[in-house]
Design brief:
Low-confidence stretches of chain A: 105-109
Helix content of chain A: 25-40%
Radius of gyration of chain A: 27 Å
CATH topology of one domain in chain A: Ubiquitin-like (UB roll)
Number of strands of chain A: 27
CATH superfamily of one domain in chain A: Beta-grasp domain
Largest sheet of chain A: 6 strands, mixed
Strand content of chain A: 15-25%
Structural class of chain A: alpha/beta
Oligomer: homodimer
Chain lengths: 617, 617
């Protein structure tokens, strides 16, 4: 062997004694996952050294801690292993990047939309120039616009000006001016122009979704989604901010990466719809504050330092070309307003889409993700906060946790007598791990079957081969090795339960704090947004005490509400003012400043419903 | 010989049997002049074939016509000669590009200027962010601007937004916001920012001048000028427009060429002043309508077709970056308004600089160039027109005409008895040719000495070796070959006189037409602008009947008034509104539509003052 040969990909790279296996694999374009961007945090980049020309380096303390007994089977962490000689490295099933389930919405318009886009076509007949008085082309166009549509002297983008003389003299009877916000002419074409498109984006930390919309009919023409490629530079908001601080070009790398991603979605959606991307005349963008800042090249580092100030809050209009986005040459991109460093325009868009701001009854809206944004309110008053729930809801820091992709268990059932487990996986593949809703389902079932007790500890009384001592203390076997895709027992460990307790406690405490501040009155409606939120069984959510004052029939999944909000703002310009009013009106509660939050966080760790099930014994 | 060897440059290139000598020389960077851009019109690219490996191709009809007897001396036109074998080619003195005299102005401010620039520095102290309420960086900045200076919510350029978080947290007490038009923040810097610069441009068909101005003091810091490199693609406005029509990339080539030229002037002026070009926060631009259109990438082709409509007339603000101009990243460029297809913002700037629009007495303003723009008016009323005077005033279509560069005769005196000639050349070099003022001086002197008669014909009575028959009919020898740099007699031909008659007649007729339309009242002031205009002796102008109703003491040269106007608009933003009002108020007279102009043009051909001098005999 003269190189490092990766299985099952049959690809060989040169060892250099400097780069680790993860770096070599990523450079070679292999789908080896790492959810921390190579920061030696996630422990997800497990590989198996099957052969080696020389003795492999001694395992690091972290490898011993993370891999335990797997070390004996040849497992190593790719990010911690540097080889200077040939080897054969197998990337096991569970370490491979998978097709991701991305929530794009299955309902066309979840809430009624009035079609009132911010760009429009205006067909005009412009009189020809005459010799006896000099009237410039621009002036003739503006006069015709005024007399035909009453639009008073809009600006002309420099690139549109360049099209003006030829368009006016095309020989066709009329021309079509495409006007943005009745303020600026952003395109000109001879004759009657058909086709007017817009694109709404939801830029998430993990996934990016783009909706191509027909602005003449309001129809969704194509929806495309992909992983946020910034993941290679950091798994979550905080690691990406660190990346900006550590690498002098970090901000630009992250910006370029998301711009390329958005351009790819534009190209894919346009190809599917068989339209020219230059006919996309406006785009809207929502995202959490860090994603928002990175998209427009604003340094996000102060988001992670008290007092966590964002660079700006109001909605913004950018020329697409100034951001490098490849739609119409003179088109604009509207970024919706945001509220705070950790309550972004995605949350504002969720409120907009769910109509929480018009609701008569107090409604709790939770966007479950690495940062659980929580909004509580009605049409009179809205409070919001952001809890650092951690990555558990997205499968992070969980032994067999994974993203919502093929082979992830998303729901399961434990027989109360036999403790046998029935599971459902995404795309019905052999189980690889557990995604967020699967973890919640597993822990809820373990509570209901008395395996997990009030404090989160495992029952000492239940006798079953599935409940056993493992490397991280006690663990419960959900799937035996013979049935998994990994050939290892798929377990929930005591440590996994503790991770979920932290996450659910943060959400529970945040929601409780908002309820206390909101004052009396029972919450009558709970909306769960986001990928994980939409797939969670309301009963499971109540069982694990994710939500305060929880009644199952009050809990509803609302899908990708942020994406819907982005679409609404694209289709109806008035929704943008509505979004500004929402952002202005919603009161932000900084949890870092609230000692009450710390109290609530500690006291919310318990699984109170476990007591109900224990009483059954 | 295996190549074509150019003397005196000692440079050898490969003959290819396809490219002509002019193209080969230009590609090799040799200073072989051609004022028609290789279109086989100007006849200025004369070269001498000193040796040849094979027989040179037969002279074309054009070469026979242009070169006449010079053919026997080995002269050829480089643009008409294609060689497929080795040769030695000499580029004679008169065919070489020279250092050009470009009028930049010797007076600091010809008219009083109030320093009121459109950009300013605003020093601010912005309170730090606090934890108990989220105020975005942008919001804090805007609040401080409002409370300190009463400036209400200016926009922020996207690139400035990117500087915002770090600038606010620089650790310095205050920051400096650079604000454009009180409307948009175009730069941000920590601490008190010194240095605020602007640059005013005058883009002429032949020359481009840039004035670097200190916007804090109003001082001119550096002035740089150069030939307009578009000359390589066409000598005058009409040939450049043809270039756009013939070459599909012509417009873009011309645009890129002038943008590069302007960027070079910016770099040179900045280097001389030892400033960073990114501290230039605004620029103003004037030019004739074709130069204006080419600079911003607007197709000029309709300028040359009836009814000669420009694409736009109003003043425009462009982001410098949208035009590719390398000053401050977020800076603006202001283009002054124009009037018509052939009355550009340079003419508006001339009016602005000379204060014609405020004048109590009727004033005639003439910008002598290929297009002679003429304005007549006072503070109550202004008329303007453009005459296609042709290139004679710039040395074009004149046997020994040349641009105003080293060796050009700019003034001369003919002894009325001996007919001996005393001349002055630019930079006191040996005479190479005649520039515009030299041609006018020569013809005026020839009128005053009775050599040229009323109709423009040469005297048959005067006997002198200097007055003789030449190839183009009669000619007068100004300088004998022994004294010239070319070793050829430097003559004024009958054909040269006819060319000047056409040019002066166009100006005379245009001015007369405006005077007729203006109605009664004697013109009391005549201003001559432009390079040629400023160097002309008022007496010469009157002698050749360039100007109607001409009294010598009423004629004044006003230098590069267009450039001054550009500077004024840079230093005092109110001048921009003044320019709009001038453009709006001035009435344009299209001469192509006026049969009266044709009558006047024909009747103005005579040199009426010749009669006075003939009477002396």
């Amino acid at each position: 062997m003269t190189g490092i040969h990766f299985l099952p990909f049959e690809k060989t790279v040169k060892p250099d004694g400097v780069k680790n296996i993860l770096q070599l694999a990523q450079e070679a374009g292999l789908p080896l996952q790492s959810t921390c961007g190579g920061k030696k945090i996630c422990g997800k980049c497990k590989v198996i050294v099957e052969k080696s020309d020389g003795p492999p380096p001694q395992p690091s303390d972290r490898e011993r801690e993370v891999l335990g007994g797997l070390l004996d089977e040849g497992y190593r962490l790719a990010c911690d292993t540097i080889l200077s000689h040939g080897a054969v490295i197998r990337v096991p099933e569970e370490s491979r990047l998978k097709r991701q389930v991305i929530l794009t919405s299955d309902t066309e318009h979840p809430y009624p939309v009035r079609l009132r886009p911010n760009v429009g076509h205006y067909y005009l007949e412009v009189p020809p120039p005459v010799l006896d008085s000099v009237i410039a082309d621009r002036e003739r166009l503006l006069l015709a616009l005024k007399s035909t549509y009453g639009i008073h002297r809009p600006g002309l983008d420099p690139f549109v000006l360049q099209k003006l003389p030829d368009t006016l003299r095309s020989g066709r009877k009329g021309i079509t001016a495409t006007i943005w916000d009745k303020r600026e002419i952003i395109d000109l074409n001879a004759g009657r122009q058909d086709g007017l498109f817009g694109m709404a984006f939801d830029i998430g930390t993990t996934t990016v979704v783009g909706y191509l919309m027909d602005l003449l009919t309001g129809n969704k023409v194509s929806v495309k989604s992909t992983m946020n490629p910034q993941i290679a530079m950091g798994d979550d908001v905080i690691t990406r901010i660190s990346f900006c601080q550590e690498d002098p070009d970090g901000l630009e790398k992250l910006r370029a990466s998301i711009v390329e991603c958005v351009n790819t979605l534009i190209a894919e959606a346009s190809a599917e719809a068989e339209i020219d991307p230059s006919h996309i005349m406006e785009a809207t963008v929502v995202g959490n504050t860090a994603m928002h800042h990175l998209f427009v090249g604003l340094d996000p580092q102060y988001l992670s330092m008290a007092p966590y100030s964002p660079v700006l809050q109001e909605g913004q209009n950018y020329k697409a070309r100034d951001l490098g986005i490849k739609i119409g040459a003179s088109a604009y991109i509207h970024l919706l307003p945001l509220k705070a460093g950790f309550v972004g325009s995605d949350t504002i868009a969720c409120i907009l889409a769910t109509g929480l701001h018009k609701s008569k009854i107090p409604t709790l809206l939770i966007d479950l993700g690495t940062n659980g944004e929580i909004v509580l309110g009605n049409r009179n008053r809205m409070l919001c906060c952001s809890t650092a729930a951690g990555p558990a809801f997205e499968g992070g820091h969980i032994r067999w946790g994974m993203r919502a992709s093929a082979g992830a268990i998303e729901r399961l059932k434990i027989d109360p007598i036999t403790l046998d487990v029935k599971w459902e996986t995404i795309y019905n593949e052999r189980p690889l791990g557990l995604c967020g809703s699967g973890i919640i389902s597993a822990i809820a079932e373990m509570i209901r079957t008395g395996i997990i007790l009030e404090k989160g500890n495992f029952s000492e009384e239940i006798q079953s081969p599935r409940l056993r001592e493992g490397e991280d203390g006690r663990e419960f076997v959900l799937v035996w090795a013979s049935e998994t895709a990994t050939k290892h027992d798929l377990v929930i460990t005591q440590k996994d339960v503790a991770e979920l307790q932290m996450a659910k406690s943060a959400v529970y405490a945040g929601a409780t704090l908002l309820m206390e501040q909101f004052g009396g009155g029972q919450i009558q409606r709970i909306l769960l947004a986001g990928a994980c939120g939409s797939y969670i069984d309301p009963l499971d959510a109540c069982t694990i005490d994710l939500l305060p004052a929880c009644e199952t029939d009050e809990v509803t999944g609302v899908g990708n509400a942020a994406g819907h909000g982005s679409c609404l703002a694209l289709l109806d310009k008035n929704k943008r003012n509505e979004a500004e009013r929402i952002a202005g009106k919603t009161q932000y509660q900084e949890l870092a400043a609230a000692s009450r939050f710390q109290e609530l966080f500690v006291s919310s760790m318990l699984f109170t419903s476990a007591l109900d099930y224990q009483d059954d014994f």
